[in-house]
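Incident log, structure service

09:12 report received: a user says their structure output differs between two submissions of the same chain.
09:20 pulled the input from the user's history:
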Amino acid sequence: MSTAQNWDRRTGVDLVANHLYDEITSLRLLPGTKISEAEIAARFGVSRQPVRDAFNRLANLDLLLIRPQKATEVRRFSVRAIEKARFVRAAVEAEVLRRAARLCDEEGAGLLDANLEEQRALLKQSDYTLFIELDYQFHNLLCGIAGVEYAFEVISAEKAKVDRLCMLGLAKDARMPDLINDHEQIAAMVTAGKPEEAVAAGMKHLTRLDSTIEAIKTRNATYFESDDD
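09:34 re-ran on a clean worker, output below:
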């Protein structure tokens, strides 16, 4: 394969993967929706190989389910996968918050405050997509304040696995005010130099997903994998 061909293939993979990622995480493609490799290839004007590579990339993120001799579909939620993601995130984030509370200075406090101001401004707009972006930014700032920027790679990877649930909860149950209040409490404890209180606020924040999961399971049970899957 020539360099030009290889570049075109990688570009095609990125184009398809990024588009489908946005469609899935924004819930324009709902859990259980079937996706055709041939249709996607035709839509983007690429061969089926880049689409296949893009599908594999999204499958590795638990966003697509690829099964031999069956249609590829948007992956349904797995309770076990959610529990695993939250366990890993909680362990990492607890240490981040302890360190952030010990190391936060005036500059760090200012950055957190500016981010929170932007979050509060979104309440009137009900812009859930932008709120999730600011949520990522908030947790990234905490990692930077703690001096462990690399920890955000783990946190963001685990957050990504439950983003669709968060989006459903934000849209259906008006959870944005509660989440912003959690962020305010976390920031207050970090800037006050109270490590264990910051951890407690962070862990309370993570439990917000419990009621969201139960509400979505009640309303849309088909969005979740069955015990036999």
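09:41 both user submissions now match this output. Likely a transient worker issue. Closing.
09:42 reviewer note: Residues 182 and 204 are 8 Å apart (CA to CA). The chain has a mean pLDDT of 88.
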